[in-house]
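Handout, page 2. Input:
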Amino acid sequence: MVDIDSDALPQGDDKRVAVQSMFDAIAPRYDLVNRVMTFRMDVGWRKRTVRDLRLGPGSSVLDLACGTGDFCRELERAHLRPIGMDLSFGMLANARTGAPLAQADALALPVSNARVDGVTCGFALRNFVALEPFLAELARVVRPGGRIAFLEVAEPPNRVLRAGHGFYFGKVVPWIGGLLSDPAAYRYLPKSVAYLPEPDDLLRMVADAGFVGVDRALLSTGISQLITATRARPEW
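Output:
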């Protein structure tokens, strides 16, 4: 059993096992903790993400690391056709959506080439074993001209806000998570931010994978970020 509560963050296969078991454990109260610790701001962030996909009604969208289906429900409200995938069976078992769901590793998607119109992913980039193969999979399954949109945590650019957010995310969030769910998991989640590349490096990685129009928007004074891009069309 991999210890997610140790000082050293897990890597490689150990990380995959740790993340899967952690989300299995926190699945039953995951939505409650999210609403409490974000003061329901996560609801607005998902609405913004779906809007910025800029896909027409009926478009097919993979929601990766779909959790309990929050993004799937928002996509359905926008008249899109979501398919949720998550490594954690516990999350899927607690899902509250009518969208099709599948247990799958985002680094090896059971989807044929250029099959979907878009991809969403909420607060999961730091939980994947590696970002390059993840982005390569997106470039494979998203059709040319299709769209991707990632929500992820961020640090406010303002020094005072950054200090306050650091205290809240590093101290208050683990306390809330420990009170309502699994203490070890919510001590791990703030530490997992260390897995994220610097913003410029992340945008470059998305572009290098075959996406254009890569954009990063800071939300709610910069405590979260929205990254969007379009799958490049082939050059003939």
